[in-house]
Amino acid sequence: MNIKTITIKNFQSYYGIQSIEFSMGLNLIIGNGGKGKSKLFNAFYWVLFGDIYITDLGWRSTDGFPHNNKFAMNRQDFLNRKALYETDVNEDVSTHVHLELEDEKGVLYEIERSVTAKRLDSENWLSPEAWNVGNSIIKVTYETSRGTQVRTDMMAEQVLRSLFPEEIRNYIWFQGESLDSLINFRDKATLKAAVKHISYYPYYEKVSAIITNAKAKIEKLERARIGDNNKTNKEINATLAKIQLYQNTVETEEKAKSNIELNITKIEMALAEDEGKMKGLANFTKLVNDYNKCKADTKDVMNKLTELDDYQRIQIPNLWILRGFSNEINICDDIINKHNEVQDTVPEKKYLDNPGRSKLEEIIKNKTCFVCGSDASEGTDAYNWVLKRIEEQEVYLKEMEDYSNNLEFSKKFERFVGSIQDYPNLLRISLDSIDKQFMESDEKMEQLQAQYRMLLKKQSTLDEQLEEIKKKHGVNPIEQVGQGDLVDNRIKASRSNLAREHRRLEASKEALANAKSELKLAEKDLERIGKKTGTTTVSETEWKNISIFLEDIFKRVQENARKDLLSKIEIRANEFYQKFTEHDNGYKGEVKINADYTIEFDGGLNTSHHDRKKMSIINAMLSLNQEALDTYYPFISDAPSSNFDIPTTHKYLLGVKDIFKQSIIITKDVDIENSNFEELTSQSKISRIYLLDSNVYCESDKNPDLHEVSTKVIQLK
């Protein structure tokens, strides 16, 4: 069987109509986080089974939204957001996934699942009240000798069940995060279940059950015939009654034993799961404690930043506004100093009153010096000197008059200047203090911001680690740590219940053994009586002996087949494991499977080796089953390499390409810029390679909403 094409319309992140073609060999689909890888895997699963995967919840039918997914998704949320956004009130929008595949007989099947939603009159187009979403409609079309056959609804589901039996689905199509639930080294029940679901061994069990049931019916017929032939023989009838009693006891005890063993298996599975959780709780506890401390530290730093910001907002207008006023203060200081210099200067004493003004005016009037008799007429040197002396006397008198007049005011002003003359120095000291205060505050702000950025980065790393644990283990570590006491109590209860069930099992085995022993004695008594009377042998007796012989033979054949199958699984798994690790250096170990279904755990290996071992075991059982039944399924896996680095993923892909006739691997762990990618593209068995990227329907500088982004498919090979 192989998948030809998948066509997706308006499903989850896929907008409009997009088709992907597949060939035999490995089909590789690459995409970074958020590019639509899991949505593509959902499209495969939805078209066939009507379910999509929801983190922490598992597979859920879209027809049951939102109730069956604990309201994690609304009724319309699996339809493409852009398609919903573009739908007007009272208009319909539809989504469908169309799959073409061909079975091993060359019959082509076309499978389509679709859903239609009607836009209602509601302001918020994202609200559940804005949409009336119908249930999915499934249609299967295929050709037979009677012509084209079209099946819908239940008949279509029946065709799909025949193509992909329910018990095998999780093994041929699985997500990397569910690998631990399929094969768990700590829980042998997982391998036992896998053998039951995906190997030919159950056919032995069915044949063995048919022989055992036939023997029981023949024995009843034999006893009934003997009773009819010996109605008057009390001894024979009493012995037959004993045989019937002990036979009923054996059947009852076998059922009880089977139920107890089933309970033990359930308790062991629950115990293994809880012990695994408890083992991981130590790591979870440290991680969650780091996460909670990081959150608390981030909140504390944010509070300090807020307090510091509030403080700075107050200080800036009240005090820090003075920063940068040093020049103005220096100017003020210069003004005060210059004033002090001026006010300390008394006008120079000038002896300009000899001769006095009246004598000088007399010389001008008489044009003759009264001392020496010199000519002082206009224009002479004596005349000019006299005029200059009169002018100097006037200026001096004016200075003395101003000095005398301002003396009182100067005293008052001087007292004021004296009171402020220390201000510049004080302000300089205050400015230095303000500068220091501002710089310290600014430095503290930078330190807190750097600390905040560092904490955000740390929190982002912790968020990624928590999300990785959610994907890998299907649990929320934060919730799990809070449930530590609850898990511990469950473990104690499971161990107590397990011990009780084992005691019940021993008692049941003892009762069964006693009943079988009594039954054999009663059958020997009947045989002894028959030898005497010759009336206890009927035609059914020979058939009973044949069925006993066949049951014994087939049980031995069945047990040998079981051991042989486990041995073949181990051998084939190691072949695949060698392919997956042939490019590794260092210790790689090997797959070891015991007869009781336990898988030996190798503590010297890392997680990626353990995961490759698990995939090797699953792939071994699938390939053996396909060879035995001549039915080949396409192998599809989403993020099988989630625990691998890029080089390890490369090695895994080189190995898996040789295992299945057709495989579709969806992964983020391939770097198309790496030289290893060229090696992948050159491989003939890697038939097609696609890259998933994003279409963005908004301006480049804008952070797009969900309805502004969709997945686009780019073919690389």
From TrEMBL:
InterPro entries assigned: P-loop_NTPase, Rad50/SbcC_AAA
SUPFAM superfamilies (alphabetical): P-loop containing nucleoside triphosphate hydrolases (SSF52540)
Coiled-coil residues: 204-263, 431-532
Keywords, sorted A to Z: Coiled coil
Domain Rad50/SbcC-type AAA: 6-248
A GO BP annotation: double-strand break repair
Gene3D superfamilies hit by this protein: P-loop containing nucleotide triphosphate hydrolases
GO molecular function: ATP hydrolysis activity
Domain of life: Bacteria
Protein name: DNA sulfur modification protein DndD
Organism from which the protein derives: Pedobacter suwonensis
